[in-house]
């Protein structure tokens, strides 16, 4: 029995489907997880290792190299990069894209084992390597806290209290604190007194090292009971520490006799954070991956409201970013867009097919959408930017199947058939072709859905949602649409007026007759138009992912390497004063020393560096950002010429790095720097669009190295470590222990008093052999000065220098890359050195290559389906000849609007190809059916195409109009223009091209058939 007929004869089953979609969709919408961006796995881990006192090159050679060699043995690793600085190694390990998130924990365990084994052979003095695999945690509820007038200790207690309270909120995974004041207990001995009394600095360090230590004291067993013994209480206050005793040569001295003890901030903190110009700290809240971030956000807001009465007066919590608010607004906007799309589709159908058909198709569309939400909830596909956009994209495509069935039923019933007969006939002819065309439309998106890289993971929900919705639309088209048509469509009489007698149909029929008559002229014209549009397509701006529509943008500021964090902070304060006078600015948060906490999945902070400054600026509206950013950049470059000042928009999608990047790799740092400078000069000479070209090795720094007088120093019993210790005591200070304040551990630092402005040459050094101080000049031959690289980058165990550059906001990276590529690649590179491209070119190339690996399978399935549908070759060839024409409207649309061809536009082009194939299948299948009835070729083509005019035009119109809500979405606007322009132009060409191609392919066989029939007639006796 035909499914469509059964849906009418057994309506209870169809009504169960309707109610299941309706109520299941309502449940799905209420229970679906909500995110801002789709979750994609950041397949990176970071290994941090300290090596105090080592230069950057020593760190690279003695720490990074052994660890990288061990890590390289893992077959799962794609890339190993390291940043080597004095005393510190940071290794980033990226896993191959073929491994998904479920496999990563096992890979990280294996990585830890490799690192632990390699760490045993590292030099003495190297700290234990720490592996951090929580690189992708997102703290989407991100706040700044200002507490003017409060002490650093009070601010710390406030921060830890907030963290403790918020961690107790249901659904919260972690709370990250940043920007807290860094304090220390400073002990500053008087060098003159130490020298007079022969008190070595190590005696002071030893006195405070155990001042507040925790040590076991055992237990006592008596009478069958155990009594624990605790160590004596330590020195719990600064005054108690200053009263500690020092034993020297049989004499007892109090610490305050020879030193000043005070509490204060460290001189060079790792970060200085301000919000709207006020000193602040930040806290970010991350939700559990299984939780709805909107609900978690509301719970956190509710908890903060309760805590508000307990927060001290003057303390203010100000949001920097609230992911749950953004997601909720996106969900509400989706409902509005959904309602608009459904209303547009219903209105178009009512205009061209009548109100009855519009209700039938509109109801089917609504059930398809809510049914899709039901299946999204079942398969745990969250509502986020991509999946919501996919629903809007699919909106116009979902009506295709229902339109074909409804239009066929309506025409058949007007011709006198009953609803059951009409459903039986219409579905019998179309359900298999429509299923094949639907699967082909889904497979057009399969390339991105099956891509294993970060871009494919980011866009997977697009494929999943479109696949679910299109398959569901086919099921509902052959079940619900016939039943609703049975209720609403009217039955006409067999002798009524023809369904295709209207002026539009007659005009189209006349056009087809003329086109078939002038078929070779039509082919030449179609070929010419397509060639011109392909040429025009090459003029379209190319872009990987578009700018975000979040009203945020960033400032990146970089002083010369070696600048202090305070100098960086002072420069950024100049920008803060300028921003405070701009009405379009809502808030600004300033970070000196490093970037912000990861508050968005697509945000990637810069590595810590005292000379780096960062700002997050929020505006009232996204439209004000370009002008504000341009003004700010002009002001910053003019007033902070000592540094590198640039602004950057927030970009959708995975990625990172500079838009233009060139990597040079080799063994000699001097040659790498020379090659990097050549690259910069060539790029700047080739294109005026290269801005702020720079290298990631930055400027070399001046290093002071005492020249150790071996003979004299060893005779005096003074080692190299003693010299280094004396200089450390005179500058940064020596850590002598910790001061416990609750759960907080504050370092105790012994150092030279800050007011003692003595030269390094004047420092005394303690001789353990002679038990007295010696001038450091007696054990060194002066101070040597040398220039060192303090930022040594490596990639896959090879020193690699990266040249990065920005571009003007009105230009795309692809445009600028095209102008400089040949010139840069013409640079002569010595043997053993290599030059490679990074940046957006590398990211987009990798994404397209990954997509390209999946496309052959998708295309093969699409071709096979088209061949199996017709059980022939000619018809599929006709249909696939239509695909190149999809570029025609795309080129005109993007060139006319000025939008770039982004990665999402590429998806639009693929989906457009699927739509054209689907239209072609419907058209060609109908021609075959009419010919099978014995109608002459030309007449069969015209009759079939006229009968399919309305479904094809309405499907295109509803799809195009369904894209209208996406024109205001920065992420999907290029895709919307691609589909709208391409489908509008290509549909018109399809209605002409498909019939003409069909006639050309079958005219000869038709002529042979007619000739054979005539011969047979002549052979029959009269």
Task: Provide a concise account of the structure shown.
The protein has 1022 residues and is of the alpha+beta class.
Characterize the structure shown.
This protein is 52% helix and 19% strand. It has 32 helices and 30 strands. A hairpin with a 2-residue loop joins strand 2 (77-85) and strand 3 (88-95). The longest helix has 47 residues, at 973-1019. The chain starts with a helix and ends with a helix. Keywords: Membrane, Transmembrane, Transmembrane helix. It comes from Ahrensia kielensis.
Keywords:
1022 residues; nine-stranded antiparallel β-sheet; elongated
Q: How many helices does DSSP assign? A: 32
Main β sheet profile = 9 strands, antiparallel
Q: Report the C-alpha radius of gyration, rounded.
A: 37 Å
* Shape by Cα distribution: elongated
Helix content: 40-55%
Q: Quote the beta fraction.
A: 15-25%
Low-confidence stretches: none
Question: Mean pLDDT, as a whole number?
Answer: 84
End-to-end gap: 47 Å
Structural class determined from secondary elements: alpha+beta
E-strand count = 30
How would the blueprint of this fold be written?
Layout: H1 3-9, H2 11-31, E1 44-50, H3 56-71, E2 77-85, E3 88-95, H4 104-119, E4 130-132, E5 141-146, H5 152-167, E6 172-178, E7 183-189, H6 191-197, H7 201-209, E8 216-222, E9 225-230, H8 238-242, E10 245-248, E11 251-254, H9 255-258, E12 259-265, E13 272-275, E14 278-287, H10 293-307, E15 316-322, H11 323-353, H12 355-378, H13 385-414, H14 419-443, H15 446-449, H16 454-477, H17 480-488, H18 503-517, H19 519-537, E16 552-558, H20 565-579, E17 585-592, E18 612-619, H21 625-639, E19 644-649, E20 660-665, H22 669-686, E21 691-695, E22 701-708, H23 710-715, H24 720-730, E23 734-741, E24 744-750, E25 764-767, E26 772-775, E27 780-788, E28 792-795, E29 798-806, H25 813-825, E30 834-837, H26 839-870, H27 874-881, H28 886-897, H29 903-932, H30 937-947, H31 949-962, H32 973-1019
Parallel strand pairs: 7-24
Antiparallel strand pairs: 1-3, 1-4, 2-3, 2-28, 5-14, 5-15, 6-14, 7-12, 8-9, 10-11, 13-14, 13-17, 16-18, 16-19, 17-18, 20-29, 20-30, 21-29, 22-27, 23-24, 25-26, 28-29
Helix pairs in contact: 1-2, 1-14, 1-17, 2-12, 3-4, 10-11, 11-12, 11-13, 11-31, 12-13, 12-16, 12-17, 13-14, 13-16, 13-31, 14-16, 14-26, 14-29, 18-19, 18-30, 18-32, 19-28, 19-32, 20-21, 22-25, 26-27, 27-29, 27-32, 28-32, 29-30, 29-32, 30-32, 31-32
């Amino acid at each position: 029995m035909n499914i469509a007929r059964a849906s009418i004869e057994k309506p209870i089953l169809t009504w169960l489907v309707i109610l299941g979609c309706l109520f299941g969709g309502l449940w799905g919408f209420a229970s679906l997880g909500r995110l801002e961006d789709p979750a994609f796995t950041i397949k990176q881990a970071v290994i941090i290792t300290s090596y105090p006192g080592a230069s950057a090159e020593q760190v690279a050679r003695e720490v990074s190299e052994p660890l990288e060699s061990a890590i390289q043995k893992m077959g799962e690793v794609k890339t190993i990069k390291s940043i080597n600085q004095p005393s510190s190694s940071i290794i980033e390990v990226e896993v191959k894209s073929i491994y998904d998130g479920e496999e990563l924990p096992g890979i990280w365990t294996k990585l830890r084992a490799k690192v632990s084994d390699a760490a045993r052979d590292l030099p003495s003095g190297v700290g234990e390597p720490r592996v951090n695999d929580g690189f992708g945690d997102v703290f989407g509820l991100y706040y700044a806290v200002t507490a003017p007038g409060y002490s650093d200790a009070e601010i710390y207690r406030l921060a830890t209290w907030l963290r403790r309270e918020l961690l107790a909120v249901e659904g919260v995974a972690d709370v990250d604190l940043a920007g807290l004041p860094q304090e220390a207990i400073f002990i500053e001995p008087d060098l003159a007194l130490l020298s007079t009394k022969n008190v070595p600095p190590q005696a002071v360090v030893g006195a405070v090292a155990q001042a507040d230590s925790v040590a076991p004291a055992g237990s006592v067993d008596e009478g069958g009971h155990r009594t624990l013994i605790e160590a004596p209480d330590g020195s719990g206050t600064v005054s108690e520490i200053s009263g500690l005793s020092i034993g020297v040569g049989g004499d007892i001295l109090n610490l305050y006799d020879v030193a000043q003890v005070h509490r204060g901030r460290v001189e060079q903190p790792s970060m200085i954070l301000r919000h709207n110009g006020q000193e602040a700290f930040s806290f970010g809240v991350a939700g559990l991956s299984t939780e709805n971030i909107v609900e978690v956000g509301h719970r956190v807001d509710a908890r903060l409201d309760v805590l508000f009465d307990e927060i001290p007066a003057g303390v203010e919590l100000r949001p920097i970013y609230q992911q749950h608010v953004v997601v909720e607004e996106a969900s509400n906007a989706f409902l509005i867009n959904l309602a608009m799309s459904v209303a547009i589709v219903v209105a178009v159908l009512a205009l061209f097919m009548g109100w009855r058909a519009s209700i039938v198709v509109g109801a089917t569309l609504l059930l398809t959408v809510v049914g899709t939400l039901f299946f999204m909830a079942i398969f745990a596909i969250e509502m986020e930017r991509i999946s919501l956009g996919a629903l809007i994209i699919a909106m116009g495509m979902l009506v295709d199947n229902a339109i074909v069935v409804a239009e066929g039923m309506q025409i058949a019933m007007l011709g006198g058939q009953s609803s059951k007969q009409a459903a039986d006939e219409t579905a019998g002819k179309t359900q298999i072709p429509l299923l094949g065309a639907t699967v082909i439309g889904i497979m057009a998106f399969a390339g991105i859905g099956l891509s294993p890289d970060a871009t494919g993971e980011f866009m997977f929900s697009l494929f999943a949602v479109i696949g679910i919705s299109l398959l569901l639309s086919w099921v509902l088209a052959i079940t619900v649409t016939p039943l609703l048509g049975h209720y609403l469509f009217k039955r006409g009489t067999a002798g009524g007026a023809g369904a295709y007698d209207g002026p539009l149909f007659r005009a189209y029929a006349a056009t087809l007759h003329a086109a078939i008559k002038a078929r070779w002229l039509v082919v030449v014209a179609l070929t010419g138009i397509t060639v011109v549009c392909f040429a025009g397509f090459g003029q379209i701006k190319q872009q990987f992912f578009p700018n975000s529509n979040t009203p945020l943008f960033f400032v990146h500021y970089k002083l010369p390497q070696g600048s202090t964090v305070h100098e960086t902070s002072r420069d950024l304060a100049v920008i803060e004063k300028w921003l405070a006078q701009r009405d379009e600015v809502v808030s600004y948060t300033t970070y000196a020393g490093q970037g912000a906490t990861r508050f968005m999945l697509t945000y990637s902070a810069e590595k810590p560096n005292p000379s780096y400054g960062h700002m997050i600026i929020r505006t009232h509206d996204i439209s004000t950002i370009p002008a504000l950013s341009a003004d700010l950049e002009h002001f910053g470059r003019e007033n902070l010429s000592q540094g590198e000042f640039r602004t950057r928009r927030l970009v959708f999608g995975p990625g990172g790095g500079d838009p233009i990047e060139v990597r040079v790799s080799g063994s000699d740092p001097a040659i790498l720097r020379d090659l990097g400078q050549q690259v910069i000069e060539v790029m700047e000479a080739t294109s005026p669009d290269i801005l702020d070209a720079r290298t990631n090795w930055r400027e070399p720094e001046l290093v002071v190295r005492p020249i150790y007088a071996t003979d004299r120093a060893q005779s005096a019993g003074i080692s190299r470590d003693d010299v280094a210790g004396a200089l450390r005591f005179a500058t940064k200070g020596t850590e002598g222990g910790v001061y416990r304040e609750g759960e907080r551990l504050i370092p105790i630092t012994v150092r030279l008093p800050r007011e003692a402005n003595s030269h390094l040459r004047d420092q005394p050094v303690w001789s353990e052999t002679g038990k007295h101080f010696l001038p450091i000049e007696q054990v060194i031959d002066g101070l040597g000065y040398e220039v060192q690289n303090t930022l040594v980058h490596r990639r896959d165990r090879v020193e690699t220098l990266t040249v990065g550059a920005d571009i003007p906001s009105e230009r795309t990276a692809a445009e600028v890359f095209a102008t400089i590529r040949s010139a840069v690649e013409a640079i002569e590179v010595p043997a053993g050195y290599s030059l490679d491209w990074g940046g957006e070119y590398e990211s987009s190339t990798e994404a397209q290559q990954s997509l390209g690996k999946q496309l052959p399978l998708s295309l093969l399935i699409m071709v096979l389906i088209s061949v199996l549908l017709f059980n022939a070759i000619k018809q599929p060839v006709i249909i696939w000849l239509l695909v190149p024409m999809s570029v025609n409207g795309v080129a005109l649309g993007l060139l006319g609007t000025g939008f770039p061809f982004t990665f999402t536009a590429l998806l639009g082009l693929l989906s457009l190809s699927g739509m054209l194939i689907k239209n072609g299948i419907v058209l060609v299948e109908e021609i075959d059916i009419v010919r099978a009835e014995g109608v002459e070729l030309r007449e069969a083509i015209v009759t079939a195409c006229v009968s399919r005019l309305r479904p094809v035009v309405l499907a295109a119109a509803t799809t195009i109009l369904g894209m209208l809500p996406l024109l205001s979405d920065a992420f999907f606007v290029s895709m919307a223009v691609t589909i709208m322009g391409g489908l509008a132009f290509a549909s018109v060409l399809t209605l002409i091209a498909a019939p003409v191609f069909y006639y050309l392919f079958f005219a000869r066989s038709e002529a042979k058939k007619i000739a054979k029939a005539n011969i047979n007639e002549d052979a029959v006796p009269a």
